[in-house]
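Incident log, structure service

09:12 report received: a user says their structure output differs between two submissions of the same chain.
09:20 pulled the input from the user's history:
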Amino acid sequence: MLAEIVLGFVCFCFAIYLFFCGIAYFRLAFGGKKTPSAKTLMPPASVIISARNEAVHIKNHLTLVLEQDYPTFEVIVVDDCSWDSTLTVLKEMQKEYPRLKVLEIKEDEVYKHGKKLALTIAIKSAQYDHLVFTDADCFPASKNWLMQMMETFDEKTEIVLGYGAYSNGKGLINKMIRMDTFRIGLQYLSLALGGMPYMGVGRNLAYRKSFFMKQKGFSPYSQIPSGDDDLFVNKSATKQNTRIAAGKDCITLSEPKKNLKEWMQQKRRHVSTAQYYKPSSKFILAAIMFYQYFFWISSITLLFFEKFRFIALGIIGGYIIIQFIINFKILKRLGETKLFVYSLLLEWLLLFFFYPLVAISNLLFKQVAWKT
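09:34 re-ran on a clean worker, output below:
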């Protein structure tokens, strides 16, 4: 009787996985890039970056944003209370690039603010309605990044979700960070294609200024330290107003954390906002997490029952084959093919080591601010 129950659980989890494949993952894996239609907009754009103590990254990366192959755009960088040479570097670059607009926020001894204030000030000062967001430690993968983000807009589009990757490097932590980023991208890009957008990342995100104002900006969750990207999308995105930009040329790249402790702090900050998602989003994410954990636990358990061992092996084999096909196609589309060989092992490490560690850490320790 116990064996039959475990088998039923395995089949149920596998069915949930196939359901998400059908409505979401296959669309991202096998859907081709749409060519611009007659209704595609090519509007002037404002690229917005918030920077705190980012002098080194600005020296290394900002030129790649300023020299995008796009007819009309401005780049707004907010120096958010930096105490390094960020402002000096920006002022020097401004002499060479007239499209660079520099704003400065000074530290207030009484009122402490987060990233949302810096972004709001930049948004209000933006000259154009179409806004594209990235971070100071990010750089576009090509000179066509801005072009492809803007090509994704049409008359009905209010939000465009892009993919923000991390640079390839040596070591297990680098591979785990990149795999974690891929898994997150797989979910939010696929579900957006399936008509269920629930988040975006501030490293590569676009929306209209008029839409931001209509949604009352970040005010509905201004008290939350993070969430300038995912909470705004979760609150505002719909099947009708959201599209994705997913391709090698329209991604951004960031330098990943160097060790487990730094990554843990970053991850804790990122996941802390999930509790504020809409109930429907939380249900979908819980269902995805449910089938991932319980599929592996129940299917491995089923292997210990001799009469169902071959069935268990067949289901596990089918899962792995489908997952490898999906991973290969989407990793290739997002320029992450070097992760493919390690993808299954990295998935297990994330599911059964890192994610539980983050969850326990968030229960035991106070949340951290966006940048100190």
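09:41 both user submissions now match this output. Likely a transient worker issue. Closing.
09:42 reviewer note: Residues 63 and 299 are 51 Å apart (CA to CA). Strands lie at 45-51, 73-80, 100-105, 130-133, 138-140, 159-162, 164-166, 205-208, 242-245, 252-254.
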